Amino acid sequence: MISRDIAVATYKTTLKFRADEKFGLISQLRRVSISIASNIAEGSSRKYKKIRTGTIHHVSA
Q1: What is the DSSP code string of 6-52?
Q2: Contacts from 35-38 at CB under 8 Å and sequence distance 24+?
Q3: How far apart (Å, rounded) are the C-alpha atoms in residues 20 and 22?
């Protein structure tokens, strides 16, 4: 799954960042990478196709 690959790549990349970024940029990047997968999962569980398609389109934009 692409969203999982993004999250893994983000975590690996942010390990190389300076320690002083831990609570700033690193935290934000990691949260957003998990959010991508969460939004896709939430959208795919929607009952109506129109809502599901809109959610996935929003995530990919």
Answers
A1: HHHHHHHHHTTS-GGGIIIIIHHHHHHHHHHHHHHHHHHT-SSHHHH
A2: 36/3, 36/6, 36/7, 37/1, 37/3, 37/4, 37/6, 37/7
A3: 5
| pLDDT of amino acid 56 | 53
Burial of 44 (0-12, 13-18, 19+ CB in 10 A): exposed
Token digits for 44? Answer: 């795919």
**Exposure class string for 16-26: b at 16+ Cβ within 10 A, else e:** eeeeeeeeeeb
pLDDT in tens, 15-61: 999 888 888 899 999 999 999 888 887 776 666 555 555 555 555 55
Closest CA to 6 of 27, 26, 36: 36
